[in-house]
Amino acid sequence: MHPEDIGKVIGRNGRTARALRTVVSAIAGRSVRVDLIEADEGR
């Protein structure tokens, strides 16, 4: 993912990230942990 797009993934006040957690939790049928990891730009 391009570094400038991180804000779009997280969303305003974390809404998009929270929605991703909700969807993944619903699919898994249990509480899950979703981490956003910043990768090195050299990759």
From TrEMBL:
Entry-linked Pfam families: KH_KhpA-B (PF13083)
UniProt-recorded Gene Ontology molecular function terms: RNA binding
InterPro entries: KhpA
Key words of the record: Cytoplasm, RNA-binding
Xref: PANTHER family: RNA-BINDING PROTEIN KHPA, UPF0109 PROTEIN SCO5592
Name this polypeptide is given: Unannotated protein
Organism whose genome encodes this protein: freshwater metagenome
